[in-house]
Structures are given as structure tokens and as C-alpha cells.
Design a protein that fits this description.
GO molecular function: DNA-binding transcription factor activity; transcription cis-regulatory region binding
Mean pLDDT: 87
Helix content: 55-70%
Radius of gyration: 20 Å
Distance between the termini: 59 Å
Organism: Actinomadura rudentiformis
Structural class: mainly alpha
InterPro entries: BetI_C, Homeodomain-like_sf, HTH-type_TetR-like_transc_reg, HTH_TetR, Tet_transcr_reg_TetR-rel_C_sf
Keywords: DNA-binding, Repressor, Transcription, Transcription regulation
Pfam families: TetR_C_6, TetR_N
């Protein structure tokens, strides 16, 4: 992961990974004989680590932040983190690397599966149509990928990414009320008389 983030796909080599890991080249090759085998193992590790980190971070949020806004804030943190940058590097590199492409072909779908499974665990009782959640999460995922690319370039120097995220959270609050708040108990917009 560190090599992918610091050096990119083209600069990542098994020799550099072994050096950074503090293991001999022979030991590295014994466990991971090729760069693709090493990257495949790293990919699996990063996906699982991201899921566990997100769920743990959500679980320790104060109760008043265990809502859709808190979930989106944490998801944005995940997308700006080093593991997500490494996954993004792999996805971009796979576009032109014939050997890497099969490994990464379903990367987006796998990340989306984790996001959807996590959402369903965190917000089990929504009244949303069954096909709405996967579609809206796919849209949020695509938006966060794009924002994370911008963030990698400018670290949100002008606050544009924060503004987009604030708007998304405003809409999400309307769609997914805080846990424990029923639709009948949530404030309704005043209707003209």
C-alpha cells in the first residue's frame, strides 16, 4: 500500500516492497512469487482493513453522530486515506495494464458490496425501495471517487469538496432519518394552506 501511494503502480516493485517491509527478497518471493500475487494479497488485505476500520470508527462515534451524516463523514475520511489512494492507483493503472486489469476488473463492485453491506448493517430499518439503496450508494461512491481524485491534487484548498459533501449530507438527512426516528415523528415541511 505504501509503495502504491508513494511511488504509483509503475514505481512499485517487489524489491521495494521487500525493502520497506524489512524482509529479504527471498522471503518475499517465497510468499509472493510475482508482483501480481503480491498485489492480489494486498488488495484483499486493504479491502478488509477498510471495512473493519470504517465499522469500528462508526461504532465508537458518539450516539448523536451515529446517523447518515456521521456515516458519510467517515466514508469521506476512508476515501481520503492512504489505503483508498492505493486502491485508486490500482484502478487507474489497470486501465492500461493488461496484466493488472483482470485483478482489478471487479474492484469497484467489490468496494460497492462492502459499502452496501455496511449500510444495511448500520441502517437496517429504512423504508426505502429495495432498488433505491444500491443505486444511490453507487452514485455516492462515484462522487466520492471523483472528489478523492480532486482531493489528492489540492487537499480541498478552496473548500469545494467540503461544500459538495455538505450538500450530499443535507439530502441524505431527508432520505434517511436518524435511527430511532420514524417517518411520522420526523419534522415535516410546512405545507401551504
Amino acid at each position: 500500500m505504501e509503495c502504491l501511494v508513494d511511488l504509483g503502480w509503475s514505481g512499485t516493485s517487489t524489491t521495494e516492497v521487500a525493502r520497506r517491509a524489512g524482509v529479504s527478497r527471498g522471503a518475499q518471493q517465497h510468499h509472493y512469487p510475482t508482483k501480481m500475487v503480491l498485489v492480489a494479497a494486498a488488495l484483499e488485505h486493504m479491502l478488509e482493513a477498510q471495512r473493519l476500520a470504517y465499522e469500528t470508527a462508526f461504532a465508537i462515534l458518539p450516539p448523536e453522530r451515529r446517523n447518515v451524516e456521521g456515516a458519510l463523514d467517515l466514508l469521506w475520511e476512508v476515501f481520503r486515506g492512504r489505503p483508498a489512494k492505493a486502491l485508486l492507483e490500482l484502478a487507474v493503472a489497470a486501465r492500461t495494464d493488461e496484466e493488472l486489469r483482470p485483478l482489478c476488473r471487479d474492484l469497484n463492485e467489490r468496494v460497492l458490496e462492502v459499502i452496501l453491506e455496511t449500510f444495511e448493517r448500520l441502517f437496517p430499518s429504512t423504508s426505502l425501495p429495495a432498488d433505491f439503496v444500491p443505486t444511490i450508494l453507487r452514485g455516492i461512491f462515484a462522487m466520492l471517487v471523483g472528489l478523492s481524485v480532486q482531493n489528492a491534487l489540492d487537499d480541498d484548498r478552496d473548500g469545494h469538496q467540503a461544500a459538495v459533501l455538505a450538500q450530499v449530507k443535507s439530502v441524505a438527512r431527508l432520505i434517511i432519518p436518524d435511527p430511532g426516528v420514524t417517518a411520522a415523528a420526523s419534522p415535516e415541511r410546512e405545507r401551504p394552506t
